[in-house]
């Protein structure tokens, strides 16, 4: 078991329907199979993370296949790791509703070897419902409730968090696949929402890791129909920050023709 107590950092073991550490801290497992390991002091609001409305919009959008090329690219990178390990353990940091985890399982990653953490309980609940053999927890990416050197690979798609936490939970020689927006991601949408749109800048390399490869994943993004357009705008954070009138105009359009651009960086944790 990879979970550790968020209060004392001791390992957690499953006893019946509860996770318990040696100090007696206990966390009940939800009916859907996930566990809430987010202490009150790590919350910035009553229900932190993406709202249920945003999560459901993202779920519908992703399950319609709009980001399938990105899911395929992620699977191709991580299945290279899978081939080298007997019982691989993956941690999805900021797993949301588990879309990329399901894609990995369909590609051949063993479902019991999939784990995910997200600060949004609604997202973790959705993920756990769809992957009953995987393990999911509500937790912070800044204080991962995960034991030291317990996972073989980490997937991080747009999620914040310190490099120190990623290094701590990853085994020596383990892989980090970090996904961020490419410079042209949704450029035409940003051009309509902002007076002076800016391209995405590439993030700094993740400290402490060795960069193995870098891949651009670019593809056209055609969104047709009223609800898909509204779902896409609901799940896109900067759409809420741009011009309100321009957003309302976009919501009424029957289709959007945009561009998707992602940067996939594969890192390895040094052995020594």
TrEMBL record:
Question: In the record, what terms sit under GO molecular function?
Answer: metal ion binding; methyltransferase activity
Matches recorded under Pfam families: Methyltransf_25, Zn_ribbon_RlmA
Instruction: Tell me which residues make up the Methyltransferase domain.
Output: 91-174
Q: Which GO terms describe its biological process?
A: methylation
List of residues binding S-adenosyl-L-methionine: 67, 97-98, 185
Keywords assigned by UniProt, alphabetized: Metal-binding, Methyltransferase, S-adenosyl-L-methionine, Transferase, Zinc
Q: Which PANTHER family match?
A: 23S RRNA (GUANINE(745)-N(1))-METHYLTRANSFERASE (PTHR42912:SF45), METHYLTRANSFERASE (PTHR42912)
Q: Know the name of this protein?
A: 23S rRNA methyltransferase
Which organism encodes this protein? Answer: Microbulbifer agarilyticus
Starting at the broadest rank, the lineage of the source organism is: Bacteria, Pseudomonadati, Pseudomonadota, Gammaproteobacteria, Cellvibrionales
């Amino acid at each position: 078991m990879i979970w550790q107590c968020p209060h004392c950092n001791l390992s957690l073991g499953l006893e019946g329907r509860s996770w318990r550490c040696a100090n007696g801290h206990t966390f009940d497992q939800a009916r859907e199979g996930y566990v809430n390991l987010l202490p009150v002091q790590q919350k910035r609001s009553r229900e932190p993370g993406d709202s249920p409305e945003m999560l459901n919009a993202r779920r519908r959008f992703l399950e319609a296949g709009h980001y399938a090329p990105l899911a395929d690219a992620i699977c191709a990178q991580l299945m290279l790791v899978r081939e080298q390990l007997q019982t691989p353990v993956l941690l999805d940091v900021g797993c949301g509703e588990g879309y990329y985890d399901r894609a990995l399982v369909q590609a051949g990653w063993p479902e019991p070897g999939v784990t995910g953490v997200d600060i949004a309980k609604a997202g973790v609940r959705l993920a756990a419902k769809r992957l009953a053999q995987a393990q999911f927890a509500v937790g912070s990416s800044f204080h991962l409730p995960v034991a030291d050197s317990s996972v073989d690979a980490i997937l991080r798609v747009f999620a914040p968090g310190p490099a120190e936490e990623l290094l701590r939970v990853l085994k020596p020689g383990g892989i980090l696949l970090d996904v961020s927006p490419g410079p042209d991601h949704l450029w035409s949408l940003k051009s309509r929402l902002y007076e002076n749109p800016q391209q995405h800048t590439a993030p700094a390399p993740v400290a402490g890791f060795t960069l193995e490869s870098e891949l651009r994943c670019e593809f056209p993004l055609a969104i047709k129909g009223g609800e898909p357009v509204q779902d896409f705008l609901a799940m896109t954070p900067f759409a809420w920050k741009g011009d309100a009138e321009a957003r309302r105009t976009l919501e009424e359009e029957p289709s959007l023709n945009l561009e998707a651009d992602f940067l996939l960086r594969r890192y390895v944790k040094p052995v020594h």
